[in-house]
Specification:
The protein is mainly alpha-helical and 426 residues long. Helices cover 73% and strands 5% of the residues. The chain has two domains: 190 residues, Preprotein translocase SecY subunit (Orthogonal Bundle), CATH 1.10.3370.10; 223 residues, Orthogonal Bundle (Preprotein translocase SecY subunit), CATH 1.10.3370.10.
Length: 426
């Protein structure tokens, strides 16, 4: 009943209701665009190719099925995510970008503008690579294209990527979840009815144990992601007493919450972007006329087809990106400086640099647990697949990580807006 009451409250608040409806309409537009194909492609042969390739199947999931339809938004938001990764790396090593980032909202707007600009050439390169890859795959998917047809297809695909980037930013501005994450979420959810239909059509009693294992892993994954997202370490903080005139201020105690996984779902998205790149390059160069290059590409492709190597590499990337993204968003120096300005201190720790060091050490210690647990959850379906579980387990496990995390993040943002309106008397 509490859930129903909360939904009723959300619906009664006109501003919040309009925001949610706007996000829903944007996601519907995205799904509609995912079914608008680019001319000149044999869709049936393309879907057969995707059903035969685990790598292409995973890539298709995160485009929301748009890639298997060869639609105008077939790239999804992958180029924009890649652009974001590049700028976050540059921000850590380029002093000028660090200074711009410290300018606050104005600096972040400038960096976001550069990210959008970089997305365009990345989308052009990825669309060209995808078309060429599908041509090399044979099976009559894409015939020979004229220069004009090639250019038209690349421009259309790039425009579709920019369109999704724009939709994602519009959604983010409404403070109802992260727009890019919600687009990926919508793409994953859209594939569930088809997956259930295929499972029902091909069901037989011999697959029942595998389905039970899959459901058990899904439940463990959901519980694990919720636990990691909600777990936090509370750092005690005291405020020094200040006397102003005849009144005394401060002297209160509170806490500074440090989340076990501060990066949320972003490490998973980053890891998937990186883990999909080597096999894509390998397939692209496997038919090269240069012997050593074709041999290396074939070896690399076979390496990533090994489930143990694939899972290990994925695990390492998830852990590494959890630490990386936390280092980007968690600034112990700034937190320590703000605490000192407010007359606050951590009991037993001197203000300033010692406080920053203490926060950094504490964050790193609890983050190790969060990163390892998140990595284990990510690769658990791969490990079970190697002992005979269903092939869709790999996609299902990775998808659940994103779906659950996005739902938690979105629900929290909606609840924060409800709380804000309660305080403001709406």
């Amino acid at each position: 009943m509490a859930v129903i009451d909360k939904i009723a409250r959300i619906w009664k608040i006109k501003d919040l209701r309009n925001k949610i409806l706007f996000v829903f309409v944007m996601l519907v537009i995205f799904r509609f665009a995912a079914h608008i194909p680019i001319p000149g492609v044999n869709i049936e042969n393309l879907k057969n190719l995707f059903s035969q390739s685990q790598f292409l199947g995973l890539l298709n999931v995160f485009s929301g099925g748009a890639l298997s339809n060869f639609s105008v938004v077939m790239l999804g938001v992958a180029p924009y995510i890649t652009s974001s990764i590049i700028f976050q790396l540059l921000t850590m090593i380029v002093p000028r970008l660090q200074e711009i980032q410290k300018d606050g909202e104005a600096g972040q707007r400038k960096i976001n503008k550069w990210q959008r600009w970089l997305t365009v050439p990345l989308a052009i390169a990825q669309s060209y690579a995808t078309i060429t890859l599908l041509q090399q795959a044979g099976q009559g998917i894409i015939g020979q294209l004229t220069a004009m047809q090639y250019a038209s297809a690349i421009i259309t695909i790039t425009a579709g990527c920019v369109f999704l980037m724009w939709i994602g930013e519009l959604i983010t501005e409404k403070n109802i979840g992260n727009g890019i994450s919600l687009l990926i979420f919508a793409g994953i959810i859209a594939g569930i009815p088809t997956a259930l239909q295929q499972t029902a059509l091909t069901f037989d009693s011999s697959k029942l144990p595998e389905i039970i294992v899959f459901l058990a892993v899904a439940l463990v994954t959901v519980v694990g992601v919720v636990v990691i997202n909600e777990a936090r370490r509370n750092i005690p903080v005291n405020y020094a007493r200040q006397i102003r005139g005849n009144k005394m201020y401060g002297g209160t105690s509170t806490h500074l919450p440090l989340k076990v996984n501060q990066a949320g779902v972003i490490p998973i998205i980053f890891a998937i972007s990186f883990v999909l790149f080597p096999p894509l390059v390998a397939q692209f160069f496997s038919s090269s006329s240069v012997t050593w290059l074709a041999t290396f590409a074939t070896w690399l492709g076979n390496l990533f087809n090994n489930p143990w190597f694939y899972a290990s590499f994925y695990f390492i990337l998830v852990v590494a990106f959890t630490y990386f993204y936390t280092a980007v968003i968690f600034k112990p120096d700034e937190i320590a400086e703000n605490l000192q300005k407010q007359g606050a201190f951590v009991p037993g720790i001197r203000p300033g640099e010692p406080t920053a060091d203490y926060l950094q050490k504490t964050s790193s210690r609890i983050l190790l647990t969060g990163a390892l647990f998140l990595g284990i959850i990510a690769v658990l379906p791969y490990a079970l697949q190697s002992v005979g579980t269903v092939q869709t387990m790999v996609v299902g496990g990775t998808s659940l990580l994103i779906v659950v995390s996005v739902v938690i993040e979105t629900v929290k943002q909606i609840e924060s807006q409800l709380v804000m309106r309660d305080y403001e008397g709406f």
